[in-house]
Amino acid sequence: MNTADTRNRPRRGTDERSGARAAGRKPTTTIIVTSLLAIVAIYFLVPIYWVVVNATKNTEDLFGTSGFWFGNTFQFLDNMHAVLTANDGIFSRWAVNSLIYSGIGSVAATYFAVAGGYALAKYRFPGRRFVYALVLGGVLVPGTATALPLFFLFSNLGLTNTYWSVLIPSMASPFGLFLASIYANAALPDEMLESGRIDGLGELGVFHRIALPQLTPAIVTIVLFQFVGIWNNYFLPLVMLADEKLYPITLGLDNWRAQTDRLPEFYQLTVGGALLSVIPLAILILVLQRFWRGGLTEGAVKG
């Protein structure tokens, strides 16, 4: 009994000291982290608040009152109706175009990126390092730098001013491929893949039935980044498209904004359209975040 007590006493003392040190750090750390998160949250939420508030105003209140408080009249529903009916309902057409570009582009880009990243992480082949270097180079090149070369290429192919001129470039994601390769290398043990091959799966079967479920956090991350990037893309559609009916929301709203000098009521349409354009992104993040967190938790438990 005494031996056991002697053996346990230092351990309790050590635990108590560790707990005291942890308790001493916790309040300060919590305050700092909470303050930083609050500042970041305010930074991102203030523009959304501004858009929501100003989407309730008429043209006079937009210029005659503070942008951070409501005006003398509240006409939110009237403004939304005006946005959806202006120019024979062209905003709805822009929204559908944005969904086509972002939806198809993000899904295709994610599949190609995950497949390529999986291959780079799990296969050894001549030129692998060179391909990896090209991917890193693609990550560093901004999209605006490739817009004009892509325009000349698609112009020679006769594809400018079509859906394909925006869709095809959107299906490439060097960042997604890089992220997928890093995550596949860390989350997919070679033994797991080999067990699938032993069970009779081909390489495509191993990829689709074993690798893809384990790569859920990476897939969701790439989809979010790619969807948001395509949805907010402005310069590529500006270069490629001339028909207003093919415009995405970003280009359409800029077209409305350009008319505000001679038609001030287009300020209301631009602000209201900006508010509506945020809704699909918010819905996407809310829907996908549980898959993201669930995949991360599953990976942590397995590790």
From TrEMBL:
Annotated transmembrane regions: 31-52, 99-121, 130-154, 166-189, 210-231, 266-288
Cell location: Cell membrane
Upper classification of the organism: Bacteria, Bacillati, Actinomycetota, Actinomycetes, Propionibacteriales
SUPFAM superfamilies tied to this protein: MetI-like
Region (Disordered): 1-22
Single Gene Ontology BP annotation: transmembrane transport
Gene Ontology, cellular component aspect: plasma membrane
Membrane topology annotation: Multi-pass membrane protein
Protein name from the UniProt record: Carbohydrate ABC transporter permease
Source species: Arachnia propionica
Family per similarity comment: Belongs to the binding-protein-dependent transport system permease family.
Keywords per UniProt: Cell membrane, Membrane, Transmembrane, Transmembrane helix, Transport
Composition bias type Basic and acidic residues, residue spans: 1-19
Primary location class: membrane
Superkingdom assignment: Bacteria
Xref: InterPro entries: MetI-like, MetI-like_sf
Limits of the ABC transmembrane type-1 domain: 95-288
